[in-house]
Design goal:
homodimer, 144 residues, globular, DNA-binding
Chain lengths: 144, 144
DNA sequence: GTAAATTTGATTGAGTGCAATTTAATTTTG
DNA sequence: CAAAATTAAATTGCACTCAATCAAATTTAC
């Protein structure tokens, strides 16, 4: 019954549900993020910036697993919106520091309800959520 | 200790490891897919086409959770490579049927080692892989 | 101290994703 | 049957994502 191409069936791939679920979750964020006028990428960038207040582009890239080709236009957009400022480090001009503005901090108050509203949308038991998170971090940990 | 912004910390998001892991897996496919000159999206499209031999764009979209805006350019590229043909359905001209060519079927022989080589790259126990797959499908199932 | 190597971002180009609009074909309705 | 509604793809426009390349600043190694 099993033929040698079974491994190429879509349902036998681990990668595919991962990829599809990732896009599905981003889709569910969209209506919530529209309210605060952020794209998903801008949102996770702001999460890191809110945490650190000031952080270099390089360190942001390391936390988000994104390279400068992706981050540069996102950060320029966030600067345009007045949520952050981009300034070269005075000690080492190669480094670009990102700092959140007052307006950026004010947005955090509006963003704070996004995670709880998302939690309602994801119908996993707490055990499943923990298990999922653990396995994904294991996948990521032996990345790079 | 807990402040009301803890929910906005990157490490407390479920969405982020999902999104990062998805991109990480696609990155690991790249060197393998480069050998058969397919991008990741082209690869999962071919998985569906190999399974069905002939399938409409609409049905492909349903299986892959992708819309025509994404699929149309991917399928045109696959046609350019000679792996598939795109032909309107004779019964209902609104429908575009995708059919794999001999060259497309020949590529399957080269693709068959991709899944096993990927499995080696993903360091999960069988139990973890099953658990991950189950949870992801649950996430996807109450999508739409 | 200066040439070479490294580090940090920016830029460019190809390939997605997806919402919104358009076009063409078919089905439904009065 | 003809107008209206629906359906299937294609197109368009915006926003990533990433590889590859480039440019500027800094470190290092002689």
């Amino acid at each position: 019954m099993a033929d040698r191409f079974d491994c190429l069936r879509l349902e036998n791939q681990l990668c595919f549900p991962l990829y599809a679920a990732s896009r599905e979750i981003i889709r569910r964020y969209k209506p919530l993020l529209d309210e605060i006028e952020l794209t998903y990428t801008q949102y996770i960038a702001m999460l890191v910036i809110w945490e650190h207040r000031t952080i270099s582009v390089k360190d942001m890239g390391a936390r988000l697993y994104l390279d400068s080709g992706t981050l540069t236009p996102v950060l320029k957009k966030l600067e345009q919106k007045g949520l952050i400022v981009r300034r070269r480090d005075s000690g080492d001009e190669r480094i670009l520091n990102i700092t959140v503005t007052d307006k950026g901090m004010a947005l955090r108050d509006k963003a704070v309800n996004v995670p709880e509203r998302m939690a309602c949308s994801v119908k996993l038991t707490p055990e499943e959520a923990v298990s999922l998170c653990t396995i994904l971090h294991k996948l990521l940990s032996d990345a790079e």
